[in-house]
Amino acid sequence: MLEGGGLVQRRELLLGLGALSLAGCATGPGEPPLSGYEASAGPFFPVNVARENILETVTGLRPDRAGGFRLEAERLDDKTVVHNYGHDGDGVTLSWGCATIASEMALAIGGDDVAIIGAGVQGLTTVLLLVRAGKKVTIYAADFPPNTTSNIAGALILTGPRYGAVPADVVARVNALAETGFRPYVGKPGYGVAEVRYHNLRCRNEEDRGERALFGCDVQRQFSAIVVDMNLYLDRLFDDFKAAGGRTYTQKFERLEQVLSLPQSTIVNCSGLGAGALFGDAAVRPVWGQLVRLHPQPEIDYAYISRGRGGLLYMFPRETSIVLGGTRRPGLVNREPDPEDITRLLAGHSRLAERAARTLRVMS
Fold it and tell me: What is the value of pTM for the model shown?
């Protein structure tokens, strides 16, 4: 649970921010063209970015991995471990694609009983697929929803064209499954999965840049995208898993020997950042990030990623909050909040909100 008090609260978490790694911010294969709808279509109500509207701020570490995410099976003693980790900030976006492939690997190994390490979004998605395939599944984790590290994810579903050295055919399949997996949950009560108007902005200055402009910024991409409210989604996935007869066991793994002592012969490793030390993977590294969560505004039905004078900024509306972010610091392990960065985030998003307010006044 969150620790501390006041406006700035902190949690040691794995910060899953949808597709906000460097690859995830790029234009992905198969993205719809700019002509999805006019940039002037609205209205675009302004986000209330006042400090008194802050619910909380959180910091955390994304599980980056040099060479891209790991999705492969490994034989260790008499066990077969299917690895599914190293997704950087794209853990939620890639969850259905990677979980599908990981579950297929586990099913091909055979046996009726499977262990899953980790109860974040990758773990829960994988166990659901295995349970639906008729397997007995046990999740082993130190924390379960609503207290997992994935619960704080911003979660805009936006894939990237490549992920390090991951083979192109694997990336293509994972990307193809990314939105497909979430599609049945869009609008489903209680799951917090919704479509929003997404915009990729380049903000050079405060000028009105014509018909393909929004908040005075160039609109580089715009289309309908899926946003997932992790405060709701993970709880529901966990409930679905338990309703299907899934089993849980609270355990924190600190040594590989603990993993190999599990009774199951097939193990799916969804341990995120912890996989580096647990399985001796030196390619895993933390990437520090910080989020500001605001009180929800039901009228905000658009999202954006912006690059410009205020640095990288992104805003995703959700049912239980509005997420503001845009911070990425590779290799940093200090989880303390950065007040200066919070000020940067608020100032940058405030500028965009002020332009939205001016545009709304003109339209009215």
Answer: 0.85
